[in-house]
Amino acid sequence: MATELTAAQLRAYDGSDASKPIYVSIRGKVYDVTTGRGFYGPGGDYALFAGREASRALAKMSKDSADVSGDLSGLSDKELGVLADWETKFQAKYPVVASLK
């Protein structure tokens, strides 16, 4: 397993290939969320985040594809707090497998 993935490499782990794990990145840390396939796999409530850097969308509690990015500019303190809560949940539940270049 590579210790660093590019955004393009991360896209290969979006759940569309059942033989590959599903990854989601938050603040540049790539988590293996395969155990949450029902949420992050195709048809899941959070499938939009699979294979992507999802920090902004999680901070804004948004499922708008335009928000699925690592851009944290312009977020409020409250939104950054929401992101920190998500990050804590991911750290407790899913292993970090790489970092995002």
From TrEMBL:
Domain Cytochrome b5 heme-binding, residue spans: 5-101
InterPro entries reported for this sequence: Cyt_B5-like_heme/steroid-bd, Cyt_B5-like_heme/steroid_sf, MAPR/NEUFC/NENF-like
GO molecular function: steroid binding
Keyword tags: Lipid-binding, Steroid-binding
Pfam family name, one: Cyt-b5
Top-level taxon: Eukaryota
GO cellular component: endomembrane system; membrane
Gene3D superfamilies hit by this protein: Cytochrome b5-like heme/steroid binding domain
Family to which the UniProt record says this protein belongs: Belongs to the cytochrome b5 family. MAPR subfamily.
Name this polypeptide is given: Cytochrome b5 heme-binding domain-containing protein
Organism: Brachypodium distachyon (Purple false brome)
Gene from which this protein is expressed: LOC100825612
